[in-house]
Amino acid sequence: MRRRRSPGAEIQIKELRSVAFGSVAAALVLAVLVAGCGGGQSAPPSRTVTTKTRAASTTTNGASTTTSNVALTVPASGSGGFNYTQGSYLEGFEFTAKRAISVTKLGAYDSNLSRLPNGSETFAPVPVALYDMSAHKLLGSVTVRPGAPATGVYRYVALSSPITLNTTDKYAVAWVSLSNYYIASPTLVASDVNPAITYVAMVGNGPGGLTMTTTMVEPNWFYTASANGLHALNYDLGPNFMLSTSTTPSTSTTTSSSTTTTVPRSGQKVALGTNSPAQGDCTTNTREAATSVGYVVLSLTSSSFQAEIQLQNGLPNTTYEVFMQQVPGSCPQETANGGTLTSDSTGHGSATATVPRVNGATTYFVQLGAPGSGAATYTSDRISAGS
Fold first, then answer.
1. Which of 202, 223, 274, 364 pairs with 21 at a CA distance of 20 to 30 A?
2. Distance of CA 170 to the CA centre of its chain
């Protein structure tokens, strides 16, 4: 279990970030934690978020820095919470853009720049990434190192080129904390969120956000602001980003013409697991009921079938053959037609496969199997053309 420590009492407290969040017992314990360590999942009763504001600049160890172009304004002091780490976690936040913006830099929290308790540490180089969560696509990433320029309590690294965001998709910025501190249980207010974006959710990895990782993966756990209010914003703080407003609106629509064209189904994320049809079973459309081991983004065009496979908890150090199944017409596959995917020592692996689309096929899914085994190890859920 993930644990936290009150910086004043130096007592480790069990983290209550599991499915018990909604229980009355958890709420009562959280109230005690708030009273005891100044943070937690509930905001202090006296906090009035509609009137409190902060200046657009902060002073960091004597250096004044403007922070009006950052996504989250986190002051060197006054942010509440405390510096803490108990392992390497994927952390970040999901957001939408209220208007067309460009992300110019990605940042990582450096506790040495803050005035919170237990701030002294050796800052380790950490990865920070920007994802389009609607398209399940990694848009860009950087490695933030100790010498990176600091703004506020974050160190920032410029992307190779600015990334323009539209106003329809959901995005997420995430880091892998490694050995670095993050701010646990801060007390930010609504005005600390840049007015160009809407804060949607705290994001993490695995059930309750408690699965440790040392490699970057797409966030798959969400603690939403719609359900939890400011508690979502005040979960943990790790990554951040800088932005600029765009004078040219971003669009993800296609230009229409006098010819009507049917747009194929594209970019649907489905589970990858062990409880789906066996290899060669082209009729059973069982949905994944067991715990998934990853996911697949299945896409169709007028001429191709594509799969972006993300194995997140598979067998370690294993090479799988990829079977791109199309029903009817190209299922079962006698031999692998999508290449191979090889997992690392942690069971993570990724691959992209594209095959020609079979005329008449209406259902599509992917299977992974060990070479020569004759049986599927993992199978994805299915999508249907035009549905």
1. 274
2. 11
How far apart (Å, rounded) are the C-alpha atoms in residues 174 and 196? Answer: 19
Q: Which fold has domain 52-245?
A: Jelly Rolls (2.60.120)
Q: What is the DSSP string of 304-324?
A: EEEEEEEESS--TT-EEEEEE
What letter would DSSP give residue 362? -
Phi, psi of 73, deg, nearest 5:
-90, 115
Q: Which two tokens stand for residue 335?
A: 């031999």
Helix or strand run (H / E) with residue 183: strand 182-184
The CA R_g of the chain, rounded to the nearest whole Å, is: 23
Smallest CA-to-CA distance from 80 within 181, 184, 9 is with: 184
Q: Which sequence spans correspond to the domains of the chain?
A: 52-245, 268-384
pLDDT in tens, 154-192: 999 999 999 999 999 999 999 999 999 999 989 999 989
Number of H helices, E strands in the chain: 3, 26
Strands of the 236-237 sheet, one edge to the other: 82-84, 182-184, 236-237
Say if strands 101-109 and 154-165 run parallel, antiparallel, or are unpaired.
antiparallel
- Is the preceding peptide bond at 332 cis, omega within 30 degrees of 0? yes
Which CATH number is 268-384 given? 2.60.40.200
How far apart are the C-alpha atoms of 209 and 225, rounded to whole Å? 15
- Token couple for 244: 């600029």
- How far is residue 89's CA from residue 236's CA, in Å, rounded to a whole number? 11
Q: pTM of the full predicted structure? A: 0.53
